[in-house]
Amino acid sequence: VPVEPPPAPKFNFNAVAKNVLDALTLPAGYGYTVLFALGDPINNATPAYRNDGSDTGFDFRAGDHHDGMNYFGLNAAGTAADVNGSERALLAMNHENITGNFLHVAGATSSGGVRPQAEVDKEIAAHGVSVIEIQKLAGRFQLNRASAYNRRITGQTALELAGPAKGSAHMRTAYSVDGSKARGTINNCATGDTPWGTFLTCEENWAGYFARATGDNAKRTANEVASFKRYGISEGSSALGWHTLAGEQYQRWNASKVGVGADGSDDFRNEANTFGYVVEIDPYHPGAVVKKRTHLGRFAHECAVYAKPVVGKPVVFYMGDDSRNEYIYKYVSKAVWDAADASRGISAGDKYLDEGTLYVARFKEDGSGEWLALTMANAAISGSTAYNFTSLADICVHTRLAADAVGATKMDRPEWCSVNPKNGEVYFTLTNNSNRVVAAPGGSKLLPDAANPRAYEDAKGSSTSTSKGNVNGHIIRTAEVGGDPAALSFKWDIYLFAAEAGADAAINLSSLTADNDMSSPDGIWFSKRNGLLWVQTDDGAYSDVTNCMMLAAMPGQVGDGAAHKVANKIGGASLEVTTQKGKNPSNDTLRRFLVGPKGCEITGIAETPDGKALFVNIQHPGEETSVADLADPGRFQSHWPDGGNARARSATVVITRNDGGSIGI
Ligand code: FEO
Ligand code: CA
Ligand code: CA
Ligand code: CA
User: Fold this and answer.
1) Are 23 and 594 in contact, with CB atoms under 8 Å apart?
2) Which candidate, 270, 280, 286, places its Cα nearest to that of 301?
3) Less crowded by CB within 10 Å, the N or C end of the chain?
4) In 3-state terms, what secondary structure has residue 370?
């Protein structure tokens, strides 16, 4: 008797309409509470947040710009880890950046002169990570302010360097003359967790925090100049002006050579080399030291996501470098997985993350791809003329230059990635790329290719956008050959082309509808519980029609579509590119779940193991409020979540079904 296949799961919600309300819009039957907003105290000694720019004490308050986050279950007593704990848990989350105008009484001072110390101290402390204990009381998740787990890691926290670059000449600073220690984590974007129960926070646009004096190039080696250029730390940059204050905790944000020693140990010329990493934090052990894992490379790290570990096989992490024309990477550990390490915490990180191989991806037109090893054994690296590589430490610190040398594929801004728990395929959002062109490429501009096949003018031609290139972004996915995460080759296709539903078919290549159209996918996350894929947007091109959003998806698999020709056009120039396109989603397999308030990005997602609570971060609502607007609350772009005349705040919300049921399907 033939066995009937199980029926396809169905979404348990109707699509939310696009909108520009100053509200968080959810489907009928769903509701939310605000769990943790900018400035909320994480202990009982810190006063409530006034939210008028006068607050201090951010070492014990929620930071700003909530971003990626992970859920770490606790047992009912709150005394130990419990991966099935749905009533009590730790949330670890990033605070990527700041909305300076809301953070200070009269807005942020311009970065022209010496900045007020109180502003700089607040800004440094409002970056980094929060670890908080949450508990379900009377059916509602709340912050436990009395918890000993609660802590902030900020731009000034003392931490350790680990992996091949530790102790190298690149890391020697006045703070750590042996190059073993550093301070602070900055621009923490997306995250990851590990099979051993720790949290990974990823440093993205750290380069923008470093000032460098005009004329500094003349004092630096050719290697140093090449690296500063490649990472965008320009001569003459004053960054946020943190370096304008006296005192080494401020001077360290100046990457210029100002000392006389040969090794950099008398100044902070090497300080920037201590940023740009995946940083490991043990949420269950508040006393454990924080470690920057240099073997996972130095770039604009978006997230670090592991493939399901298999006993006796290496542990593999996937990562993207979020800048235009940057790369997709993976790290494969030398040590093989031992299930006994599952609750070992950060000491297991020493075993798996400090020795292994870093790879970068090359995508080919036929739908195959390969992982290229970034090691000194690779002649393209040892023979590079752009940077004189002599050690693995050089590769770990100047990773982009090593990846250039091996001929990796330049992508349309790799944001988050996530592994499909059903088949191990890896999804990467490529959010958009204004540097894709169809003719006369030059400098940092590139022609479309199979994996980044779109370049055109904004189809809408709206007054809000003059974007060109890959305006709306796409989602690419890979399947490792043989299903082995450590494999050296893979197959790929494009799961989804983001587009406006009203765009013509040559641009709306995935046939999106009013119920699921989107622009600039950024956050992407598979539920390990039910395999649902959540997609979050960070859009600049569709913001005249809709605020940023989150959608739920039930994707198929690599190869379920076919080769497809993409007709590109900018102005009078045109170029046709062949790509591998997945099967188009329908309203039954891709549906809008949420639209955020004005000016926000939707980013960061986690859920309880029972699927009854979904945590989502609403980042920088109202961020377009100017200093002049502060004089009149009626001119604030957003007042979410507090309403009235309040300054808007980034916040974590808890989304539940009114009937207490499972979220999504
Ligand atoms: Fe911080 Fe790539 O977004
Ligand atoms: Ca992002
Ligand atoms: Ca983004
Ligand atoms: Ca943002």
Assistant:
1) no
2) 280
3) N
4) strand
Lookup: tokens for 7: 């029926």
Q: Say yes or no: CB of residue 96 within 6 Å of ligand 1.
A: yes
Report whether residue 321 contacts ligand 1, using a CB cutoff of 6 Å. no
Angle among Cα 210, 212, 215 to the nearest 5 degrees reads 165
Residue 641: cis peptide before it, omega within 30 degrees of 0: yes
For atom 3 of ligand 1, which residue has the closest CA?
189
Q: How many CA atoms lie within 13 A of 393 on its CB side?
A: 16
How many Å lie between the centroid of ligand 1 and the Cα of residue 389? 29
Beta carbons of 294 and 162 less than 8 angstroms apart: yes
As to burial, measured by CB atoms within 10 angstroms (0-12 exposed, 13-18 middle, 19+ buried), residue 152 is buried
Query: If you compute the radius of gyration of the chain from its CA atoms, what whole number of angstroms results?
Result: 24
CA atoms within 13 A on the CB side of 618: 35
Q: Which residues contact 137 (CB under 8 A, 6 or more apart)?
A: none
**Atom of ligand 1 at shortest range from CA of 97:** 1
pLDDT in tens, 318-338: 999 999 999 999 999 999 999
Name the closest-CA residue to atom 1, ligand 1. Answer: 189
577-593 core/surface letters (b: 16 or more CB in 10 A; e: else): bebbbbbbbeeebbbbb
- 110 pLDDT more than 80: no
* This model's pTM is above 0.90: yes
Please name the amino acid found at residue 417: C
Q: Both tokens of residue 149?
A: 């787990």
Nearest Cα residue to 274 out of 402, 393, 416: 393
Tokens coding 232 = 């965008």
Cα 511 to the center of its chain, rounded Å: 27
> Rounded CA gap, 374 and 165, in Å?
14
Q: Report the distance separating Cα 480 and Cα 371, nearest Å.
A: 10
| Rounded Cα gap, residues 646 and 102, in angstroms | 10
434, two tokens: 């204004």
Check pocket membership of 189 for ligand 1, CB cut-off 6 A. yes
3-state secondary structure 343-369: CCCHHHHHHHHCCEEEEEEEECCCCEE
Query: How many whole angstroms separate alpha carbon 260 and alpha carbon 171?
Result: 17
Q: What mean pLDDT is reported for the chain?
A: 96
Contact 278, 187 (CB under 8 A): no
pLDDT tens digit string along 375-414?
999 999 999 999 999 999 999 999 999 999 999 999 999 9
The reported pLDDT for the residue numbered 7 is 81
pLDDT digits (tens, 9 = 90+) for 615-639: 999 999 999 999 999 999 999 999 9
Mean pLDDT of 99-117: 91
Domains and CATH numbers, the chain: 30-204+276-657 (2.120.10.30)
Whole-number Å distance between alpha carbons of 240 and 119: 11
Do residues 446 and 325 lie in contact, with contact meaning Cβ atoms separated by under 8 Å? yes
Exposure string for 267-285, b = 16+ CB within 10 A, e = fewer: bbbbbbbbbbbbbbbbbbe
CB 143 near ligand 1, within 6 Å: no
